[in-house]
């Protein structure tokens, strides 16, 4: 009886475990130091592997960042607009949606702070960040649904919501001491003031 399938299975399991350790190390270093400072050497050291092993598992930085982002977002999924999409009252929809988004930003603040800071300097980070920016645009569109008004009013409300869903906006409001609920209520007042 051949032991080859057993050996191949063990080898594949070991490869998968090493891959997962590298992704985990990358994720933790990104959160602690930021993507710009998380070198391949530091990632390898944290994962307990050689630098060459990192390159065997990931052909380039973009592939490593994509794996890291997928894993991190799997553990920290952003709010799903389906949670408030069926709410017919646009004011309650905004309060619910922004409340969920702002609570998410608060819970994941460290990773988003370093990611936004390093976005322009780290090519491997640009695609994942572009995907998140597209998500916030879709989220703003979901919050705009149901608001009535002339084209000019609708355009101003859309601009307000696009501004409101940005991490930088939440950061600024939180720095001023506003709770997530207070920040969402303030945005609602901005929207109500457009006519």
UniProtKB/TrEMBL annotation:
Coiled coil: none annotated. Residues 39-58 bind DNA. It comes from the Bacteria. InterPro entries: Homeodomain-like_sf, HTH-type_TetR-like_transc_reg, HTH_TetR. Keywords: DNA-binding, Transcription, Transcription regulation. It holds the Pfam family TetR_N. Residues 16-76 form the HTH tetR-type domain. One of its GO terms (molecular function) is transcription cis-regulatory region binding. This is TetR family transcriptional regulator. It comes from Sinimarinibacterium flocculans.
């Amino acid at each position: 009886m051949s032991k080859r399938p057993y050996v191949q299975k063990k080898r594949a399991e070991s490869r998968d475990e090493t891959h997962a350790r590298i992704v985990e190390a990358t994720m933790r270093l990104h959160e602690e130091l930021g993507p710009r400072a998380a070198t391949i050497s530091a990632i390898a050291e944290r994962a307990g592997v050689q630098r060459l092993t990192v390159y065997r598992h990931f052909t380039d930085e973009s592939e490593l960042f994509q794996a890291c982002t997928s894993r991190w977002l799997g553990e920290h999924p952003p709010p799903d607009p389906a949670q408030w999409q069926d709410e017919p009252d646009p004011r309650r929809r905004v309060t619910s949606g922004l409340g969920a988004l702002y609570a998410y930003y608060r819970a994941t603040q460290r990773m988003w702070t370093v990611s936004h800071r390093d976005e322009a300097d780290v090519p491997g980070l640009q695609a994942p960040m572009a995907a998140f920016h597209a998500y916030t645009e879709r989220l703003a569109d979901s919050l705009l649904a149901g608001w009535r008004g002339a084209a000019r009013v609708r355009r101003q409300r859309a601009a307000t919501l696009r501004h409101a869903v940005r991490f930088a906006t939440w950061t600024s409001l939180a720095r001023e001491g506003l709770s997530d609920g207070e920040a969402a209520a303030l945005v609602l007042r901005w929207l109500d003031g457009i006519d």
